[in-house]
Write a structure and sequence with these properties.
Elements (H helix, E strand, L loop, with lengths): L3 E8 L2 E11 L5 E2 L19 E5 L2 E5 L3 H23 L8 E2 L8 E2 L1 H6 L9 H8 L3 H11 L6 H10 L3 H10 L5 H6 L1 H10 L2 H17 L1 H15 L4 H5 L2 H10 L23 H6 L3 H10 L12 H8 L14 H17 L5 H15 L16 E5 L6 E2 L8 E9 L33 H7 L17 H8 L16 H4 L12 H12 L14 H6 L2 H11 L8 E10 L4 H19 L11 E5 L2 E4 L5 E3 H8 L3 H9 L5 H24 L9 E4 L4 E3 L24 H6 L6 H19 L1 H4 L14 H7 L7 H16 L2 H14 L3
Parallel strand pairs: 1-3
Antiparallel strand pairs: 1-2, 4-5, 6-7, 8-10, 9-10, 10-11, 11-13, 12-13, 14-15, 15-16
Helix pairs in contact: 5-6, 6-9, 8-9, 8-10, 9-10, 10-12, 14-15, 16-17, 21-23, 26-27, 27-29, 29-32
């Protein structure tokens, strides 16, 4: 076997590109240049033996001096780095510049420019060596990771949270611009939490992206302002006043972050909906007034034009709902503020009936300001709110607070910021200006009147009225009708309602006729009876499709092609920040299980945090709570399934049973991983297809009701649940345990995606909370050991005494069955 000599020399055609040449020699030696441009003729014997290279049947004995090799490789790396800087204009992690974004920040990171020593020119050997002297291989691999396709927004948030190097943080702050808006918006709570509570370098890395997005979007601006206020609320009042989060929030709400050259949307705010010109002249809405105000907003008040300013005051706050002038964030802020104010006022009333009546009255007044340039933030498409069917709103079950559910009619549009606001279409009858108690008899008894008419109090002198010209608007809508003894009743002619016997005429509300006929046609096969203590049960039981059809038929906007119906739950007095965190975890687990093809079913719903004690929740349609099921039907869960879905051998029942098992397994895993508490039957829903849906994640991880930690089982699994699955020996129960095993294996495979950090929340109190959360993924166990663990968790939850005691406690204290 011949010995070989390994020579490393530059390629003749390119002095900057090193090449390898192997030649035969009688003695083993290596030729390494001291610099990349050194001669290839000098050789140097080296020792000791580092390794052997096998190639085919020939064995090459390679002896390299470690120190010389390291020096040569270092020089080659420097040469390649300089070539990249000079020719491709590619900078490393510490010199990364901002991406070029229209209207956004550009240029090098200011912090990095300030950190460079004087006299150190970028691109020189000295500066390159300075950057590479601290573990160059690590930084090189880290940069390759950041520039690879595997680097996603979840990884970016993780490195931004964990890295202590300002260069890495600045680079990731710039990389945020390369991700889609939807990807970054998912982690917006974590980003703003880091901006508020972490060091200045992290805040400086995040702020350019937030400011850029705020200039682009009203919705993003408001969402940032709400979250900044909510996550700053835990700070001491003196610290909070001067914190970065408070300053950024004030900057956003001051409306200084407008797009360059921003202006109000062009064109009239009153589109043509096919109304005749004569009708439009008699139906001049507040949108018309707003157009005039917007066009004259730049005029100064003079002696010849004294009403420029007074006209704005005359319309009052109503113009905030209808245009982008004077402040583009004001309409939506006023709309949300009105909904929150209703919830706070409802909480002061003692009974459900009083709360419901007040809610209907408040929403009726709210309709006087609509349509407007306002929208529901929980919706997934652009739209304008045109009407709130006030008689359909219900107060939800709560002992101390007054959350309420409303349905909102909207018109879908291309862009809610620039699209024209729809014209206001009047109701098919005059709005009431009197309470029902002040109406004369009109041929009906008091009981009949109370059950047939919507009670709308007198708003003529209401201090909470939005505008003094509300009453004038009523006269404009139907000027040919005059107030009478029954001014809210449509009076049919005597000829059309008088029978052959010439009986007295009967006065009927036309809108109520349509409503009552629609309700009769929309009755489902199984309905809930009206309960004064739980008025939401009937509304939630009604199928969503039927509700949409019924409300659309009664709506003056229902004939429009882009009409849609949305719903939202408004909550005041509850901290929804932990709910938001739980919703993020549910969305991640849902994505993981879909990716790993595990047939678990869960239903995440959108959470909007408005402050530390208020927010909005997307309702789950076609679902009622187990408490409502048991109270209304007086049946066991299995018997209710049989009533709703048929015999146990029917296709409908088997499909509903499978849905129940798949959803129960998914939520069992979620309750175990997040340690969800307060699992009474009022917080567990059952939908029309048989799925179980857990709601109200206010107590997770280290927090529990009254901080008692009473519920000790891994998750709620009652005997009724097992009966629906076919009993503990049935195939579906074994399927339930198999799904839990598959779901846990898939979840621990992507554990880093599930561990979302918001360490300032109450649920993270305690140094061991995060450690215990990681331990519940059981990364060290084999699949056989995980299977045994699942059996133990299921068996323990079935036999849990605390679950039964907590259900009994809720029944005794709150009447929850």
């Amino acid at each position: 076997m011949e010995d070989t000599e390994l020579e490393i020399s530059p390629a003749p055609s390119d002095q900057n590109s090193p090449s390898l040449s192997i030649s035969s020699s009688s003695s083993p030696s290596v030729s390494l240049p001291s610099t990349p441009s050194s001669s290839c003729g000098s050789t140097q014997p080296v020792a000791p033996l580092l390794g052997v290279i096998n190639e085919g049947v020939c064995e090459l004995s390679l002896v390299i001096d470690a120190e010389v090799a390291q020096r040569a490789c270092h020089e080659v790396l420097q040469k390649v780095k300089l070539q990249q800087v000079g020719s491709d204009d590619v900078t490393d992690l510490h010199e990364q510049t901002d991406p070029v974004v229209p209207g956004g920040p550009s240029g090098p990171i200011a912090a990095e420019e300030e950190a460079k020593p004087e006299g150190l020119v970028p691109g020189t050997v000295k500066s390159t060596r300075r950057r590479q002297k601290h573990n160059p291989s690590k930084q090189s691999w880290l940069l390759r990771l950041f520039e690879s396709k595997l680097f996603d927004v979840a990884m970016a948030i993780s490195y931004l949270h964990n890295s202590k190097e300002p260069g890495v943080q600045a680079y990731i702050g710039n990389r945020l611009f390369s991700f889609s808006h939807e990807e970054v918006d998912f982690y917006l709570p974590q980003l703003l939490n880091m901006y508020i509570h972490m060091d200045e370098d992290v805040g400086d890395a995040i702020k350019p992206y937030v400011v850029h997005r705020c200039r682009q979007s009203i919705s993003f601006s408001l969402q940032c302002a709400w979250l900044l206020g909510a996550y700053s609320s835990d700070m001491h009042i003196s610290t909070q006043r001067h914190s970065r989060g408070t300053k950024l929030r004030k900057l956003i709400l001051s409306d200084e972050l407008k797009p360059v050259g921003a202006r109000a949307p062009s064109g009239s705010l009153v589109p043509d909906h096919g109304l005749s010109p004569s009708k439009r002249t008699h139906q001049r809405s507040k949108s018309d007034a707003t157009v005039s105000i917007s066009l004259s907003s730049n005029l100064k008040r003079t002696a010849s034009n004294p009403k420029v300013e007074s006209s704005q005051d005359e319309v009052g706050t109503i113009d905030l709902f209808l245009s982008l002038c004077p402040v583009r964030l004001a309409p939506q802020r006023e709309f949300i503020k009105s909904l929150m104010g209703i919830g706070k006022r409802l909480a002061t009333l003692p009974t459900k009936e009083q709360k419901t009546q007040r809610l209907i009255s408040e929403l009726s007044l709210l309709n006087h300001k609509l349509p407007g340039r306002v929208w529901l933030p929980t919706a997934a498409f652009d739209h304008h709110v045109v009407r709130v069917p006030h008689t359909q709103a219900v107060v939800l079950n709560s002992k101390d607070k007054a959350p309420y559910l409303i349905y909102v009619e909207v018109l879908e549009c291309e862009n809610f910021e620039t699209s024209s606001v729809p014209i206001r279409i009047p109701e098919n009858r005059i709005r009431s200006t009197r309470s029902v108690e002040n109406l004369p008899d009109c041929g009906m008894t008091a009981e009949q009147r109370a059950g047939s008419f919507s009670v709308v109090p007198n708003y003529d002198n209401d201090d909470e009225a939005w505008s003094v010209d509300d009453i004038g608007e009523l006269q404009v809508e139907l000027p040919e009708l005059h107030a009478s003894s029954c001014d809210n009743i449509s009076q049919f002619s005597v000829d059309s309602i008088t029978s052959l016997e010439s009986k007295e005429p009967i006065f009927i509300a036309a809108g109520d006729i349509r409503r009552r006929l629609s309700e009769q046609l929309a009755q489902a096969p199984t309905t809930f009876r009206r309960d004064p203590e739980d008025p939401s049960a009937v509304a939630l039981k009604e199928p969503w499709e039927e509700k949409v059809r019924r409300i659309r038929e009664a709506s003056p906007y229902g004939h429009l092609p882009h009409w849609r119906l949305l719903s939202v739950i408004v909550k005041c007095g509850d901290d929804l920040r932990q709910e938001l965190l739980a919703s993020q975890v549910l969305q991640q687990l849902q994505s993981i299980w879909q990716q790993e093809r595990v047939p678990l079913w869960i239903r995440p719903y959108k959470i909007l945090v408005l402050s530390s004690d208020s927010g909005m929740i997307e309702p789950v349609v076609n679902a009622v709570s187990l408490h409502q099921v048991k109270k209304q039907s007086q049946l066991s869960l299995l018997d209710y399934f049989l009533q709703e879905h048929g015999a146990t051998t029917s296709e409908n029942f088997l499909s509903a049973q499978r849905n129940f098992v798949q959803s129960c397994a998914g939520y069992s895993l979620i309750c175990y991983l997040l340690q969800v508490k307060d699992r009474h039957n009022g917080n567990i829903l059952l939908d029309s297809e048989g799925h179980i849906i857990h709601i109200d994640f206010g107590f997770i991880l280290s927090s529990s009701p009254k901080n008692l930690g009473f519920e000790t089982s891994a998750f709620k699994l009652t005997a009724e649940f097992v009966d629906v699955m076919g009993g503990p020996d049935g195939d579906m129960f074994n399927y339930y345990k198999m799904l839990m095993l598959q779901g846990l294996i898939a979840a621990r495979k992507h554990m880093d995606r599930v561990l979302l950090r918001s360490t300032q929340l109450p649920c993270f109190h305690g140094s061991s909370t995060m450690r215990q959360l990681k331990e519940r993924f059981h990364m060290s166990l084999t699949e056989e050991q995980l299977q045994l663990l699942i059996h133990q968790l299921v068996d323990g939850s079935m036999r849990s005494l605390t679950t039964k005691l907590y259900d009994g406690f809720q029944y005794l204290t709150n009447g929850i069955m």
